[in-house]
Write a structure and sequence with these properties.
Length: about 500
C-alpha cells in the first residue's frame, strides 16, 4: 500500500491533496499535528470525506512532528478525534506512558483506557518508534517487542551508510513471523527501501507531496515511475549505484521500459558509500544487474568475474549484469557516445577529433574514437593528464591554452569536462574557440540541454549533439544487457 502523508494546515487543503493523489494511493495518514489548532474540532470527519483507510497521527516535535503539547493533552485530543471518526488506524508512539493512555472523559469525568477503546472499536494501533540519527543495534528486538500486544509495529530509523541499508533488508528474513509491520528507513540512504518496501516486509510505504519526512518520494513517482506497489516475490531488482545518485535520470529510462515489455522488474537508485558492501546487498536481495555512476566506475572492477574489452581499455565500468552466478562488467558509455555519430564515422565524415578534457568521461570517448580509427588530439587544463591519456591511446595531446590552434582543423570537437553545468552553467572551457560551422560538435553535459559551448557551435552552423542523446543511448544498451530485449522504440523517456 502507498500511504499519502498529508502536509496541509487545513482539512479542506488536506482533502484536496488526497484528491490530487487519489489514483496513486491506497490510504492516507492525516497529520493532526500539522493542522491549525482550530481545525482539530472537525478532524473526525476526514476519513469519511476522503473515503480511504486513514491513519490518525498526532506527531510530537521529538519524533519529527509539530505538536508541542504534553502527552496527556495530546493523547486526550487524539482520543476525542479518533473515537468520533471512522479512522482505521491510530499511531501511538511506543514510549507514551500507560498513565497518559488512561484518559479522563471531559463530559463524564470517567477514566477510559484508550487502547482498550480502540481495540473494541476495531481500530488498529500502530506502535511507532523513531530514530532520526541511526539504525539502532537492537532494531529486530524492538520490532518484536512492539508487535507483542497484537499491534502493528512501526520503526522509522535512519541509515547512515550501505551497511545500515543491509540491516534494513535483513528484517524481512529475520522477522518473517511478524506479518504486519511498517518499516521506514529515512534519509537519502533509505530511499531504495521506501521504493522496495515490499522487499523489506513493510505493509506500506509513506509518500508525500513535499517531504514530511527525510527521503520521502511523491505518490506519483512511487506509483507511476517505480510501480512500487506491483513488486512481489518474483520481481527482479535492478538499480544504479553512485554517490550522489538520487538525481539520476536512469530510472526514467528503465522502469517505463520494463513496464512496456511486461517484465516483472524494478530499477531503483542506491546511494552507496562502499562498493564492497553493496555487492553483499546485491547477493542478499538477488539484484539482477545495475548501472554504476560517479564515483564507483573504477571501484567495482575488483568484484567483477568477467569484463568486456572496452572496460579493460577504459579502466571503468558503468553496467554490471549477473551472468551464470558471476558479475560481468561492460561500459555502455563507450557505445552510447558513439551511437549518434556512428554513421558519420563509418562514412569517414569524421576522421579527426579534438577532445577537451582528460578525466573519467574523456577516457571512454578517446578509446571509442581511437578504436574506430579517428585520429584524436586531447587538450586538457592539466597537461600531465592529457599526456597520460594520449600516450595510452596513441593519440596526440596539447594544453587548453593552445586550443585555438585546432580551429578549422578537425572534423569533430567533443567537450567532456564539467564546465557548463551546475555552478559553471553559462561558461565554456574554451570560450575563445571559434567554429567554422563544418564541424560535428558534441557536449557530454545533459543538464542544461544546450551549454554555452554547444550554443556557440550551433550559432556557427555546426551539427551538434548533447549529453541527453548519449545518456539515452547508453541507457538503451544497458536495457539490452539487463533484459536481452531492444529498448521499446515507442517509449520516449523525459528527463
Ligand atoms: P569526469 O569523470 O566527469 O570526466 P573528472 O575525471 O573529474 O570528471 O574530470 C574532469 C575534467 O574536467 C578534467 O579534464 C578536468 O581538467 P583537469 O584534468 O585539469 O582537472 C576538467 N576541468 C575541471 N574543471 C575545469 C576548469 N575549471 N577548466 C577546465 N577544465 C576543467
Amino acid at each position: 500500500m502507498i500511504c499519502l502523508t498529508t502536509s496541509e494546515r487545513t482539512l479542506t487543503a488536506a482533502l484536496k491533496q488526497v484528491e490530487r493523489n487519489k489514483e496513486y494511493i491506497d490510504m492516507v495518514e492525516l497529520r493532526l499535528d500539522l493542522l491549525e489548532e482550530g481545525e482539530l474540532v472537525s478532524a473526525q470527519i476526514f476519513p469519511r470525506l476522503c473515503a480511504l483507510p486513514t491513519i490518525a497521527t498526532f506527531r510530537r516535535i521529538c519524533d519529527g512532528g509539530a505538536s508541542k503539547l504534553n502527552d496527556k493533552t495530546r493523547i486526550s485530543i487524539l482520543r476525542d478525534i479518533v473515537l468520533k471518526g471512522d479512522f482505521s488506524y491510530v499511531d501511538i508512539e511506543d514510549d507514551v506512558k500507560k498513565s497518559d493512555l488512561k484518559v479522563k472523559d471531559a463530559e463524564t469525568d470517567v477514566r477510559h483506557d484508550f487502547e482498550s477503546e480502540l481495540r473494541a472499536k476495531g481500530i488498529r494501533i500502530i506502535r511507532s518508534y523513531h530514530d532520526f540519527e541511526k539504525v539502532p543495534a537492537e532494531l529486530f528486538g524492538k520490532i518484536t517487542k512492539l508487535a507483542k500486544k497484537g499491534d502493528i509495529p512501526k520503526v522509522a530509523v535512519t541509515p547512515n551508510n550501505i551497511v545500515d541499508v543491509v540491516t534494513i533488508f535483513r528484517i524481512q528474513q529475520e522477522l518473517k513471523d511478524v506479518k504486519e509491520k511498517i518499516v521506514v528507513a529515512m534519509g537519502d540512504y533509505g530511499v531504495c527501501t521506501r521504493i522496495l518496501y515490499k522487499k523489506i516486509g513493510s505493509m506500506l510505504t509513506f509518500a508525500s507531496e513535499n517531504q514530511t519526512a527525510p527521503g520521502q518520494l511523491t505518490p506519483k513517482d512511487l506509483k507511476l515511475l517505480y510501480r512500487a506497489d506491483m513488486v512481489n516475490s518474483r520481481t527482479n531488482v535492478y538499480g544504479i549505484i553512485g554517490n550522489p545518485v538520487l538525481q539520476t535520470a536512469s530510472p526514467k529510462i528503465h522502469n517505463p521500459g520494463f513496464d512496456s515489455i511486461h517484465y516483472n522488474a524494478i530499477y531503483v537508485p542506491f546511494l552507496v558509500d562502499k562498493v564492497r558492501t553493496f555487492f553483499k546487498l546485491a547477493e542478499l536481495i538477488q539484484i539482477h544487474g545495475f548501472s554504476v555512476t560517479v564515483p564507483h566506475k573504477r571501484d567495482v572492477l575488483p568484484y567483477l568475474g568477467k569484463i568486456s574489452r572496452e572496460v579493460k581499455q577504459i579502466g571503468a565500468c558503468n553496467t554490471v549484469t549477473r551472468i551464470q552466478g558471476m558479475w560481468k562488467g561492460i561500459n555502455t558509455d563507450y557505445y552510447g557516445f558513439l551511437a549518434p555519430i556512428e554513421t558519420e564515422i563509418a562514412e569517414e565524415k569524421i576522421k579527426t577529433a579534438l577532445v577537451i578534457g582528460a578525466g573519467g568521461a574523456s577516457r571512454a570517448v578517446v578509446w571509442a574514437l581511437k578504436n574506430h580509427h579517428v585520429k584524436v588530439t586531447v587538450v586538457n587544463r592539466t597537461k600531465e593528464k592529457a599526456i597520460h591519456l594520449a600516450e595510452e591511446t596513441m593519440s596526440s595531446w596539447d594544453t587548453l591554452e593552445n586550443v585555438k590552434k585546432y580551429e578549422g582543423k578537425v572534423d569533430l570537437v567533443v567537450q567532456t569536462t564539467v564546465i557548463g553545468m551546475g555552478e559553471t552553467m553559462g561558461q565554456s572551457p574554451v570560450p575563445d574557440f571559434e567554429f567554422t560551422g563544418k564541424e560535428f560538435v558534441y557536449d557530454l553535459i545533459y543538464k542544461p540541454d544546450y551549454t554555452e559551448f554547444l550554443k556557440k557551435a550551433s550559432a556557427a552552423g555546426c551539427s551538434t549533439y548533447n549529453g541527453k542523446r548519449m545518456l539515452l543511448e547508453q541507457g538503451k544498451l544497458q536495457f539490452e544487457a539487463f533484459t536481452g530485449y531492444h529498448y521499446p522504440h515507442w517509449i520516449k523517456p523525459e528527463f
